[in-house]
Every structure is written in C-alpha cells, then in structure tokens.
C-alpha cells in the first residue's frame, strides 16, 4: 500500500473523529448557501480557503480552468455540477474561483499562440476555454511577459465564466454570480491564499464595485481592465 494513501487514511480517521457529530442536520438533505466553481489545482484549497468546516454549507465543484460550461447534444449548457445546487437545493449564490498561475489557462494560451497539442481528454477541456480566451489573448497589452499574460487571462477567464452564467436562461435572475481570484503567488499582494473579488454580477470596474460594496472594498482588485 502506498504510504501516501496510508497517511490519507490516518488523516481521515482524525476527520471522522472530529466531525462525527456535525452531520446530524444534513444527513437526509442539503441546502448549501453557495456553490463554488474552483480549478482542480492541488494548490487551491477549496474549502480551507473559506475557513469552511461546516458540512452542507458550500457545494464545491472543480475542474481544470474553473469552467461552468459543458457541451451537450443541444449545444453548450451550464455544467450540471454547477447547475444542480441552483436547480435543486435552493442555492442562490455562485462563486467562480480562478487562481494565479492557472495551468489550464496557461495550456489554453499556449494552444492559441503556439498551437501546442494536449491529449484528447485535456484538449476537450481546453476546447471549452479556447473560444472564450481567444479575444483576451488578442487584447493583451504589448510588452507583458508570459507570467503577466497568464494572470491577466485568469481574470479574463473568470469574467467569461461569469458572463455565461448571467446570460443563461438556466440560472435564475435573482442568483448572485461572483468572480474571484485565489492568489498564492503574491500577484495581488503579499497575503498568500487571499481571495480577490474581480467581478460581481458582470460588473468588473474596481471603483464601481468598491462604491457599491464598501464593506469588502479592500478585497476588490484587478490586474487588468480591458
């Protein structure tokens, strides 16, 4: 047995001991307040970033590139794992969580700029990002280096995912849709692991957002206003 898995089981035993009394209210149903769509990067600590240790509070989805789109026979649709809590558990807040140095955004950038290919499964995922990032790649300011380009496109991707949700008939108009970037590379400041708000219901101007949401003004930031 691989030692890493043995260690995971040991951690799980500690988890089970700590949480054994916390599932009483959610054993038969769930009504999470928020659904988060995170990138499935091992560095993105999806519940820990919110300090969440409450079962039933956050419905967490993840995939490479924090995508909210899937392809169906009828065309593009809101991904089922994102839509499920909105449609069936009364969840009325969606948070799209990008992160600095995103590998999926990097791979999409490379595919768009250099034609680099990935295995079919990864290529399928990137195929959902390419049409949304193409215009962003073309709009990048001259002189930005590769790292700067990727992190600007991280914001751009979050914006496009938020936009898709807002334009979808599957998402009720009353649903709050928020876009954020999780920073563990000191891109937005020196507080590694902090979440920065870049988009609220389609509004991306930091000054406008700070005026409307002064209580979180210090958490609103953007690298790129295009």
Automatic annotation (TrEMBL):
<feature type="binding site">
    <location>
        <position position="102"/>
    </location>
    <ligand>
        <name>Zn(2+)</name>
    </ligand>
</feature>
<dbReference type="GO" id="GO:0004089">
    <property type="term" value="F:carbonate dehydratase activity"/>
</dbReference>
<dbReference type="GO" id="GO:0008270">
    <property type="term" value="F:zinc ion binding"/>
</dbReference>
<keyword id="KW-0456">Lyase</keyword>
<protein>
    <recommendedName>
        <fullName>carbonic anhydrase</fullName>
        <ecNumber>4.2.1.1</ecNumber>
    </recommendedName>
</protein>
<feature type="binding site">
    <location>
        <position position="39"/>
    </location>
    <ligand>
        <name>Zn(2+)</name>
    </ligand>
</feature>
<keyword id="KW-0479">Metal-binding</keyword>
<dbReference type="InterPro" id="IPR036874">
    <property type="entry name" value="Carbonic_anhydrase_sf"/>
</dbReference>
<dbReference type="Pfam" id="PF00484">
    <property type="entry name" value="Pro_CA"/>
</dbReference>
<comment type="similarity">
    <text>Belongs to the beta-class carbonic anhydrase family.</text>
</comment>
<keyword id="KW-0862">Zinc</keyword>
<dbReference type="InterPro" id="IPR001765">
    <property type="entry name" value="Carbonic_anhydrase"/>
</dbReference>
<feature type="binding site">
    <location>
        <position position="99"/>
    </location>
    <ligand>
        <name>Zn(2+)</name>
    </ligand>
</feature>
